[in-house]
Every structure is written in structure tokens, then in C-alpha cells.
């Protein structure tokens, strides 16, 4: 089969243009659009078929959630507003167990060692000098590729941050399962969002709050949220057929409290309000502007366009996109960046071995800012600020 360890290939502006015209780009966009359509008009608790593979993925997420409890934050008097280093222990745990976890929880993956993916016809007889089949670690195990997307779904180990690029990795993990025919998009699409993605969001909110993950980007996700984009996209689709709720309803606290468990969009607004005290107009101007749109259907259409423009078409994000055999690189793009040299910020030691951080900036063009860069200034977590403020308030009975 020849699965390979996924590598980054989009390094220049010309690479980005090739990416936007590639089959993999089309696959990612089509996947997200299909999922959005599948939850159109549906609440979070709507009934949907939960297939065996969906149940197995949920068990994987249960195990990830249990891993968080193994690494409590050690409180000290000099608590910083920045990320908690215990996150790295969680991250190391996930990278260590992911292959065994996915293999045991999703047995169907073991049957794909001699099977074909949807991309095999395009990859066979590829003699292009830029094709990423020149990787030496060919393997018959699809987990060689899937684990990279899975591990990178939880944030960056070095910077202890999280952003839309990590969220995209989780979607790539799910897309790989679809391309390997583990998940059936035709019948599993609704459950992928209402069961799997919502569970993923729950885990990420836990990680963000427990380890004070920093926003990976200069302005969060362009004013939508410090961390996420897709729950707004899927959430707008959920609301697109609602007969009464309007985009401006997000400014009504009673509505937000009433519908936060029913719709992804309202839950995101509730979460933002819980950690930021000023109005949306000040800390989330994009959300404030969107609330002026007349209908949720227009918001849903705009979210797809915005996701393409601000995530999939942005070099600072897509230069971190990983390509393997399941999600192949566009023809003619740059060869993988060199990882022969490492520094303290791009590698770490785990179980006595030096591990290169796949989300580092090593080998990337120096003139391009990456997510997590903001004029060289680290971005503190609003969650951290909120929790520190709460901790500093005297107990009323003191």
C-alpha cells in the first residue's frame, strides 16, 4: 500500500495556488459542506443513526477524555496567564497511545492494510519528482498517516496553544476515516457532527480551560472565537431553517442561556460570554457584525466562504497542513522541509528519544508568520485571565 508519514508541502505562495486547485482541497471543502448540510435544521439532541464505527470513534474520544484526568495542573503561587506545562504530559500520552488506541477501538482499520483508498487511482504510477511518495517510511498501516492528524487535533505541544489549524487536523482525521470506508458519509454525516464533533468540542473546551491553552493566532480566529471556527459554521447551518431565532438573538442573554445546549452557535456565544466580560462589539467584532445579517441561511452561506478565505486559503495555516497518501499533496508543490536540524523549540525528549515537533516552524520560510505568531508577542488566554480574576476575589464570608 505504501502509506507514508504525512509531511508539510505548502511552503510558498505558488504552492498555495496549487493547493486551492487540488483534489485534496476539493475533498476537504466538500466534506465540510456535506457535514453542514447534514445538520441543517437539526438541534444538538436531534435523533440520528449511530453506526458501529461512529460508536467506536466516540469510545476513542472517551479514552482521550480519561487521559486528561491523569495530568492535573500543579498550582503554585506564581501562576502565569500563559499555558500550563502539564498539557505537554497529556500531549505525550496521546502521541504514545494513539496508534494502539485507534487500532483497538476501530478494528476495521486493521483490515485496510491491503486495501485501497479513494485516492489510489490518482497515486498509482506517479513519477512526478515532487510527489510525496519519495518518503522512505512506506508502510502497510494506515495509522501511519491517521495518527498524525489525530495527534495534532489537540493543540501544539511546544507553544501550548490551539487554533483553527488544529481543528482542521481533527476534520482531516475524520476525512481519512471516510476515505478508508470506516465511516460512511452518506449515513454517518449527521452523527459525525451531533455525536463526534460535539464530543470533540467538549474535550477541547476542557483542555482550554484546564491547561489555559493560548489562542493560536494574532486575533483568535479572526474575531469569531479565540480557538474555533467550525462550530460557528455548523451551528449556522443548524439554525438556517429556524422560524423565529435571528442572528441578532445572540445579544439576548436569555436566548443564549436557553439555546446553548441546543445549537452549536449559541453554545459558542455562551462560552465566550463566560470568559470575557465586555460586549461582543469590543472583543469579537466579527461576530457582532455577523449578528446584523438578516437570516441564518445567509450567515451559513457566508461561513463557508469565510472558512475558505480565512482558513483554507491562508498560507500561515495551510503551510502546516500534512499530506500523505490518503490526503495527497498537489502536484508540483515544494518538497518537504528539512527536519535534520532541531532546536529546543522544535524538538523534545520523550521516553529517552528525541521527538521533532511536527507543528514547529522548522524548515518553513522565515518571512511567513505562522499561527501563534503576533509580532513576536505571546498571546495570553482569556480563560486564564478570567480564572485568575475569580481566584483573586475575596470570599464574601472572610
Automatic annotation (TrEMBL):
Single GO term (MF): protein tyrosine phosphatase activator activity
Record EC number: 5.2.1.8
CDD domains: PTPA
Chief subcellular location: cytoplasm
Region (Disordered): 333-359
Enzyme class label: isomerase
Residue stretches of biased makeup (Low complexity): 340-349
A Gene Ontology BP annotation from the UniProt entry: mitotic spindle organization
Keywords: Cytoplasm, Isomerase, Rotamase
Entry GO CC: cytoplasm; nucleus; protein phosphatase type 2A complex
Catalytic activity: [protein]-peptidylproline (omega=180) = [protein]-peptidylproline (omega=0)
InterPro entries: Phstyr_phstse_ac, PTPA_C_lid, PTPA_sf
Subcellular location: Cytoplasm
Functional summary from the UniProt entry: PPIases accelerate the folding of proteins. It catalyzes the cis-trans isomerization of proline imidic peptide bonds in oligopeptides.
Protein family: Belongs to the PTPA-type PPIase family.
Protein name: Serine/threonine-protein phosphatase 2A activator
Organism: Saccharomycopsis crataegensis
Amino acid at each position: 500500500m505504501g502509506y507514508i508519514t504525512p509531511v508539510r508541502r505548502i511552503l510558498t505562495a505558488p504552492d498555495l495556488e496549487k493547493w486551492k486547485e487540488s483534489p485534496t482541497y476539493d475533498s476537504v471543502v466538500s466534506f465540510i459542506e456535506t457535514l453542514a448540510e447534514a445538520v441543517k435544521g437539526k438541534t444538538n439532541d436531534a435523533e440520528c443513526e449511530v453506526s458501529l464505527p461512529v460508536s467506536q470513534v466516540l469510545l476513542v474520544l472517551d479514552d482521550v477524555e480519561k487521559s486528561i484526568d491523569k495530568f492535573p495542573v500543579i498550582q503554585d503561587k506564581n501562576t502565569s496567564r500563559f499555558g500550563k506545562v502539564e498539557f505537554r504530559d497529556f500531549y505525550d500520552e496521546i502521541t504514545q497511545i494513539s496508534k494502539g488506541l485507534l487500532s483497538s477501538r476501530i478494528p476495521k482499520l486493521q483490515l485496510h492494510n491491503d486495501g485501497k483508498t479513494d485516492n489510489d487511482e490518482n497515486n498509482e504510477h506517479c513519477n512526478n519528482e515532487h510527489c510525496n511518495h519519495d518518503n522512505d517510511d512506506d508502510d502497510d498501516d494506515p495509522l501511519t498517516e491517521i495518527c498524525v492528524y489525530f495527534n495534532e487535533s489537540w493543540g501544539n505541544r511546544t507553544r501550548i496553544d490551539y487554533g483553527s489549524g488544529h481543528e482542521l487536523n481533527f476534520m482531516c482525521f475524520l476525512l481519512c476515516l471516510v476515505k478508508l470506508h470506516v465511516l460512511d458519509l452518506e449515513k454517518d454525516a449527521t452523527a459525525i457532527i451531533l455525536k463526534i464533533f460535539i464530543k470533540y468540542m467538549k474535550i477541547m473546551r476542557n483542555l482550554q480551560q484546564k491547561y489555559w491553552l493560548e489562542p493560536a493566532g494574532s486575533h483568535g480566529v479572526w474575531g469569531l472565537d479565540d480557538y474555533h471556527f467550525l462550530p460557528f459554521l455548523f451551528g449556522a447551518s443548524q439554525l438556517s431553517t429556524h422560524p423565529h431565532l435571528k442572528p441578532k438573538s445572540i445579544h439576548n442573554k436569555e436566548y443564549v442561556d436557553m439555546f446553548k445546549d441546543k445549537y452549536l452557535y449559541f453554545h459558542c456565544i455562551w462560552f465566550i460570554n463566560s470568559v470575557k466580560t465586555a460586549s461582543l462589539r469590543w472583543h469579537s467584532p466579527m461576530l457582532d457584525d455577523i449578528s446584523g445579517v438578516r437570516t441564518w441561511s445567509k450567515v451559513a452561506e457566508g461561513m463557508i466562504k469565510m472558512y475558505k478565505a480565512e482558513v483554507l486559503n491562508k498560507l500561515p495555516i495551510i503551510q502546516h497542513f500534512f499530506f500523505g497518501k490518503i490526503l495527497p499533496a498537489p502536484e508540483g508543490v515544494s518538497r518537504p522541509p528539512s527536519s535534520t536540524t532541531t532546536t529546543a523549540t522544535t524538538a523534545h525528549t520523550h521516553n529517552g528519544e528525541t521527538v521533532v515537533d511536527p507543528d514547529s516552524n522548522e524548515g518553513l520560510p522565515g518571512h511567513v508568520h505562522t499561527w501563534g505568531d503576533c509580532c513576536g508577542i505571546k498571546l495570553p488566554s482569556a480563560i486564564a485571565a478570567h480564572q485568575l480574576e475569580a481566584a483573586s476575589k475575596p470570599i464574601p464570608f472572610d
